[in-house]
Design goal:
mainly alpha; about 75% helix; about 220 residues; single chain
């Protein structure tokens, strides 16, 4: 007879599942807690030892949960960017007019620029480094696709509320907004206090150009 207390072949025990869940939860906590430090240091100047020196975590603890800095950074940035995608989706969901949607979207962009500049700086640093380090490319490509799809959902929702078709492609829309945000980030990090309002205004203007003009409908 088979002992019902012993999992059969291919069956994962509840105890094993619990251990995996706890391990992944701890990885998430460590990645979230070190992201600010990572954003301040940048990719090139970051090592697990350097992160340990600037946080409350030991080098041994970080190395237990992450093989190297690539794993820690990509894991952390992926978690952060996936949260960003959900945040934009939530921001535009209540909008019932084109103006409300544009304001919500532009406001979310300005708010995250001010509140989370180090995280975005790390993301752009990571994306640039992926052109030189193959280990980063899959994560960067996947996140870029998620962000591109998120921007496209905004454009489609705006298009539906306006009642006019988009005049840009999904890729075209993403590159426009991404370029705007990155340039505003550079200027904001250089001390441009007025940049958040510039971003807010420019995002609304740019969104309006993604759909056909009223006289072209």
């Amino acid at each position: 007879m088979t002992d019902p207390a012993v999992p059969g072949p291919g069956v994962v025990s509840p105890k094993r599942i619990s251990h995996v869940d706890k391990f992944e939860k701890r990885r998430g906590e460590l990645a979230d807690a070190t992201l600010v430090t990572l954003g301040e240091l940048g990719y090139a100047r970051t090592s697990l030892r350097e992160i340990a020196q600037k946080t409350e975590f030991t080098h041994g603890l970080l190395h237990y949960y992450f093989a190297d800095k690539v794993e820690l950074i990509t894991f952390g940035v992926r978690r952060y960017k996936e949260k960003c995608v959900r945040r934009y989706d939530d921001a535009i969901a209540p909008a019932t007019t084109p103006e409300e949607l544009a304001e919500a979207f532009a406001g979310a962009m300005a708010a995250t620029l001010v509140g989370e500049a180090p995280m975005h700086r790390l993301w752009y640093d990571l994306r640039t480094q992926s052109m030189f380090e193959e280990a980063l490319r899959d994560t960067v490509i996947d996140l870029d696709r998620q962000l591109e799809a998120m921007i496209w959902r905004v454009v489609l929702a705006y298009s539906e509320l306006v009642g006019r078709a988009p005049v840009v492609t999904e890729f075209g829309a993403y590159t426009r907004f991404d370029g705007l945000f990155e340039n505003c980030l550079v200027r904001y990090c250089a001390g441009g206090e007025a940049i958040p309002e510039t971003l807010r205004a420019q995002a609304k203007e740019l969104l309006a150009t993604t759909v056909a003009r009223a006289d072209d409908s």
